[in-house]
Each structure stands twice: as structure tokens, then as C-alpha cells.
Amino acid sequence: MNRALLLPFLLLALLRPPAAAQSAPSRADLTRLFAAARTESSGVVPLILHASKTLSTLGPRDAAVLGDTLEPYVRRAFFGPERLPEMERLGLRVHVVAAGEFPGEIARRYGFGAGLLRYLNQGYDERKLRVGQELKVLDLSDKSLALVVTKSTYRMSIWRTSPGQREPLLIAHFAVGLGAENSPTPAGETRVTKRVLDPEWTHPETREVIAPHDPRNILGGYWIALDPEGIGRAGIGFHGFTGDVPKNWIEQPASHGCVRLLQPDIDRVFQLALDGTRVSLRP
């Protein structure tokens, strides 16, 4: 059996239900849903809905395992062009371009960065937008989006409340790098205050300001700043990292306190986490 087929069975072995809420039938349902989603597109939405609900019942370690296993399916739904059966249950819909509309205007209407349109629509070209064109979009206009970083498992999860659903819905799940022992990533509740593409970087030791595109600028072209209120430290944010190979920092304590992400992942976070997005940094 290959690794992709083995993962759900490994997952179920790790899920140790602390309470009746995570019962044997629920685990059996999860196995069945993973099996269905691997072979049928109609199985993806039910899997995401059920697994998201299950995640809320788990401790950090088991939630990380389930999140890692679910990640290819949420990426397929929320960062891919496929128009899945029942995708409206996830807040995904088709937008028909009207006269005078521009990509930025459409993105603002639904509450995401305009770059998300290129993930959701195959062959998308913002320069060739036309009246009547159908675009897959993710409706985040209710501003329910929230980012959760769990420090003990080196994971970031992105959640939203889907239309007609009471339980939060997982829409992204990433491994991250965190602060070193002498400069730990703080814990607390905060918000995104600023998003910058191609930012300058101030070296934390020399205080030299390094320009965008300079090879010494290690931010990977992205900076998402967090409000110091609630976490007790200024200068903390999310960014990419090009200062070393991933094996030397991902899922490890190595930064000056910021949360580092792989380059493909920070771009996806950048398209979702607009100013004001809630952020929880948990032990």
C-alpha cells in the first residue's frame, strides 16, 4: 500500500478519543469519507465538512495528523480550479463578471486578495477579464476568517465559518517555523495589521535595512504584520524565508520570533489574511 493510501489508517490509529464525541462510528465515517474522496470528486466536500468538525474534538498532536492528511483535499477545494459538487457548502461559488468589474473589485467584494483568483481559475489572466466570464471565488465577505498557529506542533490552520454551518471549517493547513529558544514566538490573540509584497527587511542584529530583491533579504517577498497588542511584542509577523534550506528551519525553533512559512504557503496565506484578520498564537 502506498503512503497516500496508508495515511488515513495511520491517522485513525492516532486518534485516541478522550470523550464520547469522538466515537467509533465517527472514526469509521472518517475512513469511509477519505476513501470516497480519493476516487470521487463528490466525496471531497463531505470529507472536508466532517473532518473539520472532527478536528475541533482533538488535542494538538492528533489534530496535526488529521490536518496534514486533510491538507491535499482542502488545497484542492480552496486553491484549485475544480468546481466540486456541493462546493457552495464550503463558501465557494461561481461569480459572473459584470460590465466594468476589475479583479481587485471582485476580490474586495468577496474578502480575499486578488491573487487568489489565479489559484481558483485555470488559465486565469487578469488582463483578459471579460463580461460574462465565470470565475470560481471563495466568499469570505462575512469576515469569519481566523488563523491559528499551534506552537507545540509547528502548524498553522486557517478557519472560516461556512454558510449554513455552525462549526468552523478548515480551509488551509501548513507546517511552519517558529522562534528560537532565546527569541520565542509569543502567544496570544491578535490581528493582521499590514500586508506587504516585496518588503524591506531590517536585520535584527545589525539594524541594516535591506532592500526588496536583495539576495540578503530573507523574507521571501512577503510580510504580514501582527498587532503587538495581545501578544506583547512588536515586529512579529508571518513571512516566507529564503535564508536557508527548509530542512534547517521548518518545524523548528530558529527565527527571531516570527512565523516562517514555505514560499508556496506564504503566498496562499497572503491572499487570505487581509488586514483585520483574527490570529491566535497558541502554546
Describe this structure in words.
The protein is α+β, with helices and mostly antiparallel strands and 283 residues long. Helix content is 29%, strand content 23%. The protein has seven helices and 14 strands. It has helices spanning 3-14, 24-39, 44-55, 60-78, 103-110, 116-120, 263-272; strands at 92-96, 134-138, 146-150, 155-161, 168-175, 178-179, 188-197, 201-202, 209-210, 222-226, 237-239, 253-255, 259-260, 278-282. The strands form four sheets. Strands 5-4-3-14-7-10-11-13 form an eight-stranded mixed β-sheet. A two-stranded antiparallel sheet has the order 1-2. Strands 6-12 form a two-stranded parallel ribbon. Strand 3 and strand 4 (155-161) form a beta hairpin. It is globular. 35% of the residues are buried. Residues 1-6 and 17-25 have low confidence and may be disordered.
Shape: globular
Sheet with most strands: strand arrangement = 5-4-3-14-7-10-11-13
Rg on CA atoms, Å: 19 Å
Number of strands: 14
- Main beta sheet: 8 strands, mixed
Order of helices and strands: HHHHEHHEEEEEEEEEEEEHE
Structural class: alpha+beta
Strand share of the residues? 15-25%
The termini sit apart by 36 Å
Average pLDDT reading: 91
Compute the number of helices.
Answer: 7
> Helix share of residues?
25-40%
Low-pLDDT segments, ≥5 res: 1-6, 17-25
Quick structural gist:
The protein is of the alpha+beta class and 283 residues long.
Defining traits:
283 residues; two-stranded antiparallel sheet; 7 helices; 23% strand; 14 strands; eight-stranded mixed sheet; alpha+beta; disordered N terminus
